[in-house]
Design brief:
Length: 184
């Protein structure tokens, strides 16, 4: 049995990483958030899979690339957050396709460490249409991507589901490239 799960949220500034974490914890959308949430630990008995779960935030404003890579190497699963109403943040996910970016991005590091990834489209309250069309080709290309989910911190939509999928990706991995021996 695995003793705990470490979930890291990454993504462009302002896509709502910190808001997602704070909303999960307080069950309401915070009006104001810091750049980076403190690491939180959810006790085993309140998680769906009964495993203590650490949730770790990332903020470009407060952390260096070096610190980001360290966190990536410690994570068991990484949520790549984009904002469904922000083309640029979706483009960043799309750029998984572009070798130049791919070679020097955190995503490369994820792929190297064989950490399962989850694509998270936040702020679904702001749009009518779904971003799935854009991200599906990326999902199909990278087996490290376990699943994708659209959610809204503001409407509390799919928040607990998102963290459940992340937990599940670690405890019940499906990706053929995932190599459990590598991460304890
Ligand atoms: P950095 O720490 O700068 O990387 O940003 P972040 O990704 O942590 O984003 P943050 O949680 O600070 O949210 C950025 C802005 O988006 C804030 O004004 C939030 O209130 C807003 N926001 C976050 N989630 C949602 C959402 O689901 N819907 C809407 N409408 N706004 C949101
Ligand atoms: Mg933040």
């Amino acid at each position: 049995m695995r003793k705990d799960v470490r979930i890291l949220l990454v993504g462009e500034p302002k896509v709502g990483k910190t808001s997602l974490i704070m909303t999960l914890v307080s069950e309401e959308f915070p009006a104001v958030v810091p750049y980076r949430a403190e690491e939180i630990t959810i006790p085993a008995d309140v998680t769906p899979e009964r495993v203590p779960t650490h949730i770790v935030d990332y903020s470009e404003a407060e952390q260096t690339d070096e610190q980001l890579y360290q966190e990536i190497s410690k994570a068991n699963v990484i949520c790549i957050v984009y904002s469904v109403n922000n083309k640029k943040s979706i483009e960043k996910v799309r750029e998984l396709d572009h070798t130049t970016y791919y070679l020097c991005s955190p995503f490369t590091v994820c792929v190297c460490f064989r950490v399962p990834l989850i694509l998270v489209g936040n702020k679904s309250d702001l749009v009518e249409h779904s971003s799935m069309e854009t991200v599906l080709p990326i999902m199909n290309k990278y087996t490290e991507i376990e699943t994708c989910v659209e959610c809204s911190a503001k409407n509390l939509k799919n928040i607990s589901e998102l963290f459940y999928y992340a937990q599940k990706a670690v405890l019940h991995p499906t990706g053929p490239l995932y190599c459990p021996e590598k991460k304890e």
